[in-house]
Amino acid sequence: MSLVNDMLRDLEERRAAPAERLALEGLQPVDEAGAARRERSERLRRGLVWLGAVVLLGFLVGLMIGRVVNGQIPWGGNFPKREEAAVVPAVVAPRLLEVLPQNNGHSLVLQLLLDRSVPYQRIEESGAVSLRLPGVQLAGQAQSGRVQHPGSSLSWRVDAQGSDVQVLLVGMGDNLEVRDRLEPAGDRWLLWIEVPLAPTPVAEAPVELEQLPSATPAIEPEAEAPLPSWASAPLAPASAPAKVVAPQPPARPSGPPEVKIAPYQPDALSVARQALQDGDYPRAIRELETLHKTRGRDPEVLRWLARAYLAGGQQQRLLGWLPAQLAQMPHDSELRLLLARTQLQAGDTKGAVATLEQNAPSLLQEPTYHALLAASYQQTGQWQESAALYRQLIALRPSQATWQLGLAIALEQLDQPAEAGRHYRLALQGLGLDESARRFASERASALGGRG
């Protein structure tokens, strides 16, 4: 109740004097009913607040109990750490599933079965062709083989080089023709590699003696020559001191002279070379080894013997014999090339690089020697050295497309896409690229056209 209202009611009940009422004249009675309503509203508001707090607390406690029951929160009271974002699994690298070699007598065909389509790089230099499949895993073991054909020899090898797969083909001669293409085969892909083998040379029929033309034409009898002046002169008197006797002219043959033609006898080196051309490698090796014993350090005999060892599949024999010959003739670049090719066939790419780096001839004199060295640098991953050497070769002969292609591949590996794309385009403008190499250069030039 209000104190003011109590005082006013007290004045009314006591019938107080006007003077006493005058002291409380300014006071107004309080609306007790409104105050009671406001007090009830305040109590109701406070009750609702407390009720809401209790309901919210009960809800949170129930939620906590539910999570504990479901095992989302351990009893120790420690909340689990926030789960990290799931790691995206790495893309599975393409795989080389199988290598299927075929030899039908006219060509060697290698079929490489892949689980998907992959780009590959082709490098061709001086009797060696390399196909490199970047980022491809070799499912099985490395494979290699050799094909011997009359007049030619071919070695091939498919193995893993770091994270890549390399297909290396090395022929005996400088002109090695390799055709390659990638095509779908169901849900797989096949990389076809075809190498035509040199045709067997046709042996010339022996020429009979009667078939040979006469070495000299038949000799016709000549007209009788006039006698000299002394023959018609008068005889000297008998008292002459000396009797002049006329000299007798030489007797003339009555018919044409007899012509004798001896049969042709080739020398030992020609016999060995013919045996090598016919594919008779054991005979060629025997003949050349005999010549080597008699002629010693004859460079021509050494080169042909090294070729015979290489063509006859005598790799280990050549690798054990030729280094000693090179030690005596260190500046013979052809012997050094033959040794490097043998090392490449055996898979010793580092050894081939070391061989070619020693006593290298002048680049101006033998650019193909340095081209093989630049290509071998790429087999060992020496991209800086390969690019530097290819730049020197291109400065000498800018129109050589294979050198432009080799430089482009090296620059791409060195993360110089703009320069690599430019040299891919220059390779397409040059000469010497086959269809597959031209297709590869075109694809890489398009892919790198907008980069850099």
UniProtKB/TrEMBL annotation:
Signal peptide: none annotated. Residues 241-260 are annotated as: Disordered. Keywords: Membrane, Transmembrane, Transmembrane helix. Residues 247-256 have a biased composition (Pro residues). The keyword Mitochondrion does not apply. The keyword Membrane applies. InterPro entries: TPR-like_helical_dom_sf (IPR011990). The chain crosses the membrane at residues 47-65. This is Tetratricopeptide repeat protein. It comes from Aquipseudomonas ullengensis.
